Every structure is written in structure tokens, then in C-alpha cells.
Amino acid sequence: MTRYKYFIPLLLLAAALRFAYLDTQSFWNDEGNSARLSERTISLIIEGTASDIHPPLYYLLLRGWRELVGETEFGLRSFSAFVGIGLVAVTIALGQAIWRRPTLGTWIAGLFVALNPILIYYSQEARMYALLSFLALLATLLVWRWLILPPHASRFTYLAAYTITLAAGLYTHYFFPTIILIHGLLYITTLHRQSKIVTLKSLTAWGMALLAAALLYLPWLPIFWRQTSGRATTSSPPLQFFYDSTTWLLLGNFIGSPFSQYVLLAAATLLIFALILHPSSLIIHNSSFPLLLAFLTPIILMLLRGLTKEPFYKFMLMAIPFLALLLGQGAALAWRRKGTRGVGVVAAAILLLAMGLAYQQMRFNPAYARADYRAIAQRISSDNHPNAGVILNAANQWEVFTYYHQNGAPTYPIPRGGMDQAHIEGELDAIARQHDRLYAIFWGEAEQDPNRFVERWLDANCFKAVDEWVGDVRFVMYAVPGEAAATMQTPLNLQFGDHITLLGYTLNQDTLQPGDIITLTLFWQTDAPLAERYKIFLHLVNSSGQMVNQRDSEPGGGLALTTIWSPGEPITDNHGVFIPANVPGGRYTLLLGLYHLTDPDLRLPLRGQERAMTAYPLAPIEIR
Predict the structure, then answer these.
(1) N or C: which end of the chain has fewer CB within 10 A?
(2) What is the average per-residue pLDDT within 82-107?
(3) Which helix (H) or strand (E) element contains residue 200?
């Protein structure tokens, strides 16, 4: 035990980084799925995952874990955090097994795993990817210890533990079989490095362990085959994929070029040192060679399978500890030689600095934050509208949203299945008839609703007052009129610029209260095709001309762009302007104008006015 005391600071560092800010961010979609699925009974979890894209073990473990620690974000994510700390410990143990004693290389490898930003990220997510990496490396540690045992030592304990770990990994993720291929390569290269031959006895023992794991997995094998066969693939140039995936494994997507190029150069330098500075003259006798194969195998399999998009990179987390051991060994070997010591120190320093910067970006840059469903639910709750409804354009948002939104406005996942437009239109119409206000949460539209039918219907029949990005989720608020404005109430014939005419408008109400939405229908027309995209601004200003709220949007909620207007064709354009709850009562004015999409200061002038104007006082608004 004494020999491990040097590694205790690494485990404490790993724990601090994985538990710090653990519940700062909201659950995102997949985490919501984990939270809600783990609420079920064991039989329902197994039944649910049989049609899911992941096997059941993680959800079953999370089911037991929540009984111990509760169902808070901190509680549910803490399982992954502990597993992430375990991954650092197993990396250290594997380094010890390879190099037989506490070494500088093992210590540096443990530091790289402890600081790796992408491992920290998935150690703070209520998903199975940290567990996937832990089980893969634990199985590797067990098979390695089995391989290096003396000939007469008892191997049963290691093989039994290895079998159970393999079965657990297979029930955790469908990419786990990759580790079995890695172990086959380790088996061959380790025996060759030790100047042994592959004996029938040892091969039979390993085969029996694999067979036992396969028998334990047999009930799930038909589901594995169904889920992993026939999936669409993507193509990517091999060198580009190796560059992108290796950068991601080191830094995530938190640091871009050109700094990432120097990081890869530093990593390549240490990797070369690990291979060429070893005392053995043959690379296959080098203890780093099996680790190189273990690192490359998941990347090669992903490339061959065609899973080359970034969302699939997390399947390869098991490769990071192998890479860390290679880099740690390279840094240690470079330190032992005066001619390479300076280069090794600089390369290791670049990697550590880059990981620190990537961690800082991941933790504090809002661009990398998870979608904030917690804030969305709180916003809806704080509005406290007496007759609101919530529409989710992707049904798989239901789990995460209802984790936070358990009372209040009813929630409608649309479309529930398929994209039959007549059926969806009927659903939306029925929902709109029941509510005065609708909140819509749009996510994954390219897959769920590529033609944006749900949003088009809402924009045509309701009044969009708020349209905000919350991470990669869009939060939209609509006012629902008692009856859509089919006719123009107030004709104007105002010309903006050379070609656009505001024919008139219909204002549903001019006396409202704080928290209400001004609902306005504009009627536009152009006399010529428009090459520019324009945005419409609506400013609510008080008697002193100070703006209390605004709404800027392209026509039709962003779906009726000015570049697709046909000359002479009237364009009906619904807008809503939200009146904040803290606005005092009084008389206000609604100003309207247009500006170039890329430059808000480049407004279209009104033609035929007595004085130069770029904002027209459309209507007085009384707030009580």
C-alpha cells in the first residue's frame, strides 16, 4: 500500500475537479432520460431499454444509486463522478502493472487522466460514458495482470473477475466489444514481448472467459444485433478523422485551431519518445507498443464503422487512459536523458496548459454550457400565467423538461410520432383553443421536424413574443388570440425603402396589463423582388421615449424571409411584444421599423414623410 501513497494527491485532484460545480448546470435531454428512466421498476427499465439505444445496466445501477443519495442533479451525477475517480485509480494501477513499480510515467499518466477535460465533463453527466471507460480499463487491468502472472500462479480469480467485468461492460454500452479486440492484441503482443508462445492452455483459458461473458450476455444478444446493425454511416477522410478525434480525446471541443495543432505536436513528440527511447531495440518488445495498439483500435473501428461525427466521439473515451499512459511514459523516458529532457518538459507543459485552458472554457464559457431546461421551467413558473400550455417539438424532451416542470402548465410533446401534417395540425389547433398563451421549446428540429411545420403553424396562428436561445434549445413564447386576424383593421400604405409597403395592421388590444402580450398583425407587400433580408423591430417606449421592451424578428417568426416575398403578394405577419411584469402603468407607444439583417443601425427610411423617419409610431398602448 505504501507504494501508492505518491498517487493520493492525484486522486484528490480528480475528486475535486469532478465534484466541483457538479449541479451548477441543468440536466440536458439525455440526462433527463436517465433521471426519468431510473425512476421505474427494474422490469420496466429492462423493458424500456430493449427499445432504447443503450443497454440497461447503467440505468439499473442508477436506480439503486438514487435510493441512496436521492434524485437531485448532484445526487444522480455523483455516480459518474465516483466512477470518474475510479478511472484515474485504475489507470494508475494499470501503469503499475505494466512497469512493475511506482514510476514517473505512471504519475504523469494519472495526472493527464485527472485533468483531461472531456473525462471531467462525462464524469459530471448522468450518463453511462464514464462507466463505459471505467469498465473497459478495469477489464484491461485484469487481463494484463492475468497475462503477467507466473506460470504456476492461480489465475481463476483474475479470470472470474474479468468475465464479470466483460459482461457488465457489454450491458453498459454497445461499443464495449471493442475492448475484447484490444485484449486480443494485448494477449498476442504481451506473450511475444515476454518471449513466450501462445500455448493451447492459456488460449483455452482466455476463450473460456470470453465464452462465459457471452453466455451471461446471451439474453440481450438479439437486441444488441438489432440496435447495432443497419445504422447509417458517415464518411470522413481518415487523416482528418484521426486529427479531429485525437484532439477531442485530449481537449474536447473546447479549444480550436491553431492552438490545438501545437497540442497535437506535443502529444506526438511524447508518443514518439515512448516508442523510441525504450531500452529494447525492437518496437514490439517495447511495453508502450501494446498501449499504442489499444489507443488506436477504437479510432480505427469508428472509422471503419463510419461513425465519424463528433456526437459519436464519446464512444471512444476508453482510448484516453491508454493515450495518457503512452504520453506519461514518453515524458518519463525523455526526463531520463539530458538530450531530450527539455523537449519532454516543454511538450508535457503544453499538454497540461492546454488541458487547463480547455477546462476553464468548459466550466466558465456559456457557449459550452448544457441546455438550461431548469431556467426554462423556472421562467414559465415565474410567469404564472393562469391558462398556459407548453409544446415540445421533440417528444424526447419530455423527460428532462418534466423533471423540472412537474406542476402548472400542461405539456404537449408534438409530434408524438410520425409527421402526418393533418394530424399535427389538428393537435395544434385543439391545444391552441384551450390556452391563451403557449410556450414552445424547440430542439433538434433537423431530425424531429425538418420542415419546421410545428413552428410554421404556430407563427401563422399565434403571436410570437419571445424567441431566445438557451444553449442549443430555443425558448419561444406565443400569445393565442381568440380569433386570428384575417382582415386589416388600420390601413396605412407606408413605404419603407424603395420597395416595401406596410399596407396596414390589426392590433387586437390597446389596453393591457404587465405580463400580457401585445398582439399585432402586420400586412406587407413589395413591388419588386428583394435581394436583402430585413428584420422588423417593434419598440415599446414610454412617454419619455425610453424603451421598456422590444421584439426584433424577421417576418413570419423568421420563416417568411423578405427574400422570398413575391411582388404584389400581401404578406400576413404576426408579432407579439411581451410587457414585463415590472412595467408601471401609463401610456406607451409602439414603434415599428425595418433594418438590414446584418446591421441593426442600417434602417430603411420611410418615404413620403414630412421629416426623415426610420421608426413609425404605430399605435398608442395603455398599460394598467
Answers:
(1) N
(2) 91
(3) helix 200-217
Q: Are the beta carbons of 437 and 479 closer than 8 angstroms?
A: yes
Of 83, 193, 108, the residue nearest 148 (C-alpha): 193
Give me the pLDDT at residue 531, please. Answer: 92
Angle at 564 between CA 558 and CA 568, to 5 degrees: 120
Residues contacting residue 45 through CB under 8 Å, at least 6 positions apart: 37, 38, 56, 59, 60, 63
**530, 565 in Cβ contact below 8 A?**
yes
- Residues pairing with 29 in the sheet: none
* Domains (range + CATH), the chain: 2-227+236-368 (no CATH), 379-479 (3.30.110), 490-623 (2.70.50.60)
Grid cell for residue 428: 395544434
Tally Cβ neighbours within 10 Å of residue 281.
7
Nearest to 146 by CA among 102, 107, 183: 183
Residue 344: burial class (beta carbons within 10 Å; 0-12, 13-18, 19+): buried
Sign of torsion over alpha carbons 108, 347, 329, 90: positive
Going by C-alpha positions, the residue among 296, 169, 193 that lies closest to residue 241 is 296
Using the predicted structure, report yes or no on whether residue 281 has a pLDDT greater than 70. no
At 616 the three-state DSSP class reads strand
Q: Which three cell numbers stand for residue 548?
A: 421598456
> In this model, does residue 222 exceed pLDDT 60?
yes
Let me know how long the chain is: 624
pLDDT in tens, 19-31: 999 999 999 999 9
**Percent of the chain scored above 70 by pLDDT?**
92
CB burial of 464-482 (b: ≥16 within 10 Å; e: otherwise) equals bbbbeebbebbbbbbbbbe
pLDDT digits (tens, 9 = 90+) for 141-176: 999 888 777 666 667 888 999 999 999 999 999 999
Kindly state the cell numbers that stand for 272: 514518439
Is-contact 7 90, C-beta < 8 A?
no
Angle at CA 284, nearest 5°, toward 194 and 331?
105
What is the rounded average pLDDT for all residues in the chain?
A: 90
324: Cα separation from own chain's centroid: 24
